[in-house]
């Protein structure tokens, strides 16, 4: 398999974790988002949206959108199961994943931040307030659900890692980058630390990828 990603992409991080947990061999080509490589015709031919990740597996067009890729890997590959067998538990895991991947992460991706600053003259300081608000809204939702709902265990859904955890940890790692306070979210913190302790997650961590800052 071949994947196009970027070291700091939360979506690519989610997919990278799944690939490693399932023991799948892959080659990752890093797209320099800061240099604008995602806008070059050769990459737009791969993904017209100009976003990572994009995953090639055999013949056919690339797979895009992290949740769609996670579902594909779960449905077609062996290894560690990343969704529960029980339909209700599976729906809950997907619901928690979508809190991050559908309702939180899209609000602060670089193309949104850049557009708001350029189109509306939003100062960087105000933009950072917006970013932190987006994080806090998602984290508050996760904390409330994970603390109150009976399905929570060692991980988001019971004691086995799932898509929900891959999404949660991708959000959690971003709190350090954007200086988001995390003290109000002890349940999220507990689960995030359990996820980050897994060697596959450590190997997939953004700061361990080519192009990441060394300090």
TrEMBL record:
* One GO MF term attached to the UniProt entry: glutathione transferase activity
List cellular component terms (GO).
Answer: cytoplasm
Q: What Enzyme Commission number(s) does the record list for this chain?
A: 5.2.1.4
Record keyword Cell division present: no
Carries keyword tRNA processing?
Answer: no
* Record key words, sorted: Isomerase, Pyruvate
Q: What class of enzyme is it?
A: isomerase
Q: Where does the record place the GST C-terminal domain?
A: 86-214
Question: Membrane spanning segments where?
Answer: none
Similarity comment: family membership = Belongs to the GST superfamily. Zeta family.
Quote the protein name from its UniProt record: Maleylpyruvate isomerase
**Encoding gene, per UniProt annotation:** nagL
């Amino acid at each position: 398999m071949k994947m196009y990603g970027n070291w700091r992409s939360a979506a690519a991080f989610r997919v990278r974790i799944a690939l490693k947990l399932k023991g799948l061999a892959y080659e990752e080509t890093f797209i320099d988002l800061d240099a604008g490589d995602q806008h070059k015709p050769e990459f737009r031919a791969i993904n017209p949206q100009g976003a990572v990740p994009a995953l090639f597996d055999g013949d056919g067009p690339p797979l895009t959108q992290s949740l769609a890729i996670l579902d594909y890997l779960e449905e077609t590959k062996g290894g560690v199961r990343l969704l529960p067998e029980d339909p209700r538990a599976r729906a809950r895991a997907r619901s928690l994943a979508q809190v991050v991947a559908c309702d939180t992460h899209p609000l602060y991706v670089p193309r949104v931040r850049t557009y708001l600053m350029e189109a509306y003259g939003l100062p960087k300081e105000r933009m950072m307030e917006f970013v932190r608000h987006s994080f806090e809204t998602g984290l508050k939702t996760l904390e409330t659900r994970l603390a109150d709902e009976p399905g929570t265990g060692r991980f988001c859904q019971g004691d086995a890692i799932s898509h929900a955890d891959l999404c949660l940890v991708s959000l959690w790692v971003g709190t350090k980058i954007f200086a988001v306070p995390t003290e109000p979210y002890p349940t999220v913190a507990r689960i995030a630390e359990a996820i980050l302790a897994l060697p596959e997650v450590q190997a997939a961590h953004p700061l361990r990828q080519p192009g990441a800052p060394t300090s």
